[in-house]
């Protein structure tokens, strides 16, 4: 669950890893707990506080037996999430979040608070298929750094896959400065 090394300016980063039991983890920094909870509520479902900054979003309220079967912390054994759980989230007040889930679509939606930490990157709205492409499990020592670049006629979201200080590869999303749609290339 390494979302990257400690960063002085907290460069926005995320990482996706396979946890077992068809569960993926999405580590994000920096995000505010309030914005992550809002994004969870946007997904719909029953949001339950498990204590100590942990939340579970499920299709229905958990039964007493399901609640008792949960580990003391979802970070210990995320593969034990009940089948009715859409995502479980561990939020730290210092701006780190770890999300566990089986649905790439749900995890893609929860990338939006990280994009928002860069400023006006949600206008235009990032395309769902583009967000889904970003939810690909990586090596345990890799993460993705986000950088926003503004130009007079366009804006760029630069995504760099990094490991131990090296850039493995990068992608750029480009959108016109005023309106239009995000693209993974220069044509619009």
What do you see in this structure?
The protein is built from five helices and nine strands. With 188 residues, it is of the alpha+beta class. Strands 3-4-5-6-2-1-7-8-9 form a nine-stranded antiparallel beta sheet. β5 (85-91) and β6 form a beta hairpin. The longest helix has 11 residues, at 33-43. The radius of gyration is 17 Å and the shape is globular.
Report the average pLDDT across residues. 85
> What structural class do helix, strand and pairing data support?
alpha+beta
Strand content: 35-45%
The radius of gyration is 17 Å
Pick out the low-confidence regions.
1-7
Number of helical segments with 4 or more residues = 5
Based on DSSP secondary structure assignment, what is the total number of beta strands?
Answer: 9
Largest sheet: 9 strands, antiparallel
Gross morphology: globular
| H/E element sequence | EEHEEHEEHHHEEE
List keywords for this structure.
188 residues; disordered N terminus; alpha+beta
How is the secondary structure organized here?
Elements lengths: L12 E8 L2 E7 L3 H11 L2 E6 L2 E5 L5 H6 L15 E7 L5 E5 L2 H6 L2 H5 L11 H7 L7 E9 L3 E10 L2 E11 L12
Antiparallel strand pairs: 1-2, 1-7, 2-6, 3-4, 4-5, 5-6, 7-8, 8-9
Give a short overview.
The protein is α+β, with helices and mostly antiparallel strands.
């Amino acid at each position: 669950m390494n979302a990257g090394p400690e960063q002085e300016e907290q460069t926005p980063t995320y990482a996706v890893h396979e946890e077992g039991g068809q569960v993926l983890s999405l580590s994000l920094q920096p995000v505010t707990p309030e914005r992550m909870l809002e994004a969870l509520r946007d997904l719909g479902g029953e949001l339950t506080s498990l204590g100590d900054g942990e939340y579970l979003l499920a299709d229905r309220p958990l039964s007493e037996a399901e609640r008792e079967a949960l580990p003391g912390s979802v970070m210990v054994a995320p593969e034990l999430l009940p089948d009715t759980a859409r995502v479980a989230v561990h939020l730290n007040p210092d701006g780190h979040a770890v999300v566990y889930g089986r649905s790439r679509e749900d995890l893609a939606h929860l990338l939006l608070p990280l994009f928002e930490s860069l400023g006006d990157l949600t206008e235009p709205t990032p395309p769902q298929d583009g967000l889904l492409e970003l939810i690909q499990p990586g090596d345990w020592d890799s993460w993705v750094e986000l950088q926003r670049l503004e130009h007079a006629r366009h804006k760029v979201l630069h995504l760099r896959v990094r490991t131990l200080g090296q850039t493995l590869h990068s992608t750029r999303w480009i959108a016109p400065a005023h309106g239009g749609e995000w693209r993974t290339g220069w044509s619009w």
